[in-house]
Design brief:
Muramoyl-pentapeptide Carboxypeptidase, domain 2, 9 strands, A_A_dipeptidase, zinc ion binding, 2 domains, single chain, alpha+beta, about 20% strand
Length: about 220
């Protein structure tokens, strides 16, 4: 594979050279950091779009196996892991999606744009917060590595995944108290660490809204 060398300038004064192979992910050179490395391996990474076990039924990430975020978001995620360890020793956060290139967003959109699933995928023109490295999809695992039961899997597109209706789901028996408690634990540590949840997906958390993300960070090509 052809090796490419680039010179980067950070903060207007730090200059250094890096080399990488043509097929390597570009994320580290967009100013993003490896979540697993920053957490010293305490946070697990299982990218669902780097497998065929997702709603697309296709591996759209290719060689990308690591989770990247902007530094501030990665630091907040490590803070969430610290909070989790205090509350539940041995438990760990598992990341199912993090920073996503806009090129992948286009590929995902092409697959769903004329289907009912299009409401769950942001168009490339609008962009996703994952395209800025400020959003993350996560769950929790216990001390044995078993994922906690959240009532639905990650990437489940139906109202049962929505935090907005959880009280009703509990009353109707569609969510158990254990499942709801697991969701609440996840939300508690993520919110305390500085993330915001959304109403439609229990697994999705973001550091900023779209307009703020655009002001602060470049989109990942």
């Amino acid at each position: 594979m052809r090796e490419i060398t680039k010179t980067l300038i950070l903060a207007g004064w730090l200059v250094f050279s890096i080399s990488w192979t043509k097929t390597s992910p570009i994320f580290p050179y967009q100013g993003l950091v490896d979540v697993s490395e920053l957490s010293e391996g305490r946070i697990l990474v299982r990218l669902i779009y780097s497998t065929t076990n997702n709603f697309l039924g296709e591996d759209v990430y290719g060689d990308l196996e690591k989770a990247y975020l902007v530094l501030e978001a990665a630091q907040r995620l490590v803070a969430a892991q610290n909070l989790l360890e205090q509350k539940r020793p041995g438990y760990r956060i598992v990341v199912y999606d993090a920073a996503r290139p806009l090129s992948v967003q286009r590929k995902m959109w092409e697959k769903v744009k004329n289907t009912p699933q299009s409401i769950y995928v942001a168009s490339p023109e609008r962009g996703s917060l994952h395209n800025y490295g400020v959003a993350v999809d996560v769950s929790l695992v216990d001390e044995t590595g078993q994922e906690l039961d959240m009532g639905t899997p990650v990437d489940f597109f139906g109202e049962l995944a929505s935090p907005k209706y959880e009280k009703r789901f509990l009353q109707d028996g569609r969510l158990s108290q254990t499942q709801l408690s697991n969701r609440l634990l996840l939300r508690e540590i993520m919110i305390q660490a500085g993330f915001s949840p959304i109403e439609t997906e229990w697994w999705h958390f973001q550091m900023y809204g779209r307009e703020e993300a655009r002001k602060r960070y470049p989109i990942i090509p």
